[in-house]
């Protein structure tokens, strides 16, 4: 794990989501071998806004609903194309969320 990033847990998730910024997201995405594009940023920004409002990470179904406004039925497929190793493993980590304890994937 990179040492120039904010404090993280053993799995690489931020300890404090308030330490997140877009540079941190880019570095975390690089570790996950993801080249961030506009669709990734759409998901990440939605997740950050949801976190700011609710103080919890958005469940995947909320992100899929958000994407469906633009993509329709392809939203769920698209989410898993953007983050091929999983919503929790990659999207939550890159968006600066703590590691969710229990999770529904959608």
UniProtKB/TrEMBL annotation:
InterPro entries in the record: DsrC-like_C, DsrC-like_dom_sf, DsrC-like_N, DsrC/TusE
Alphabetically ordered keywords of this record: Cytoplasm
GO-annotated biological processes: tRNA wobble position uridine thiolation
Pfam families listed in its UniProt record: DsrC (PF04358)
Coiled-coil boundaries: none
Keyword field contains GTP-binding: no
CC terms in the record's Gene Ontology section: cytoplasm
Subcellular location: Cytoplasm
The family this protein is said to belong to: Belongs to the DsrC/TusE family.
Descriptive protein name: Sulfite reductase subunit gamma
Native source species: Thiobacillus denitrificans
Native organism taxonomy: Bacteria, Pseudomonadati, Pseudomonadota, Betaproteobacteria, Nitrosomonadales
């Amino acid at each position: 794990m990179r040492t120039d990033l904010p404090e993280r847990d053993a799995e690489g998730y931020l300890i404090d989501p308030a330490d997140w910024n877009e540079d941190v997201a880019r570095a975390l995405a690089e570790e996950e071998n993801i080249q961030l594009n506009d669709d990734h940023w759409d998901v990440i920004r939605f997740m950050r806004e949801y976190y700011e409002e609710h103080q919890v990470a958005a469940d995947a179904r909320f992100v899929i609903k958000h994407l469906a406004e633009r993509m329709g039925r392809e939203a769920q497929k698209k989410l898993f194309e953007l983050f091929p190793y999983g919503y929790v493993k990659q999207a939550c980590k890159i968006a600066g969320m703590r590691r969710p304890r229990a999770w529904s994937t959608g």
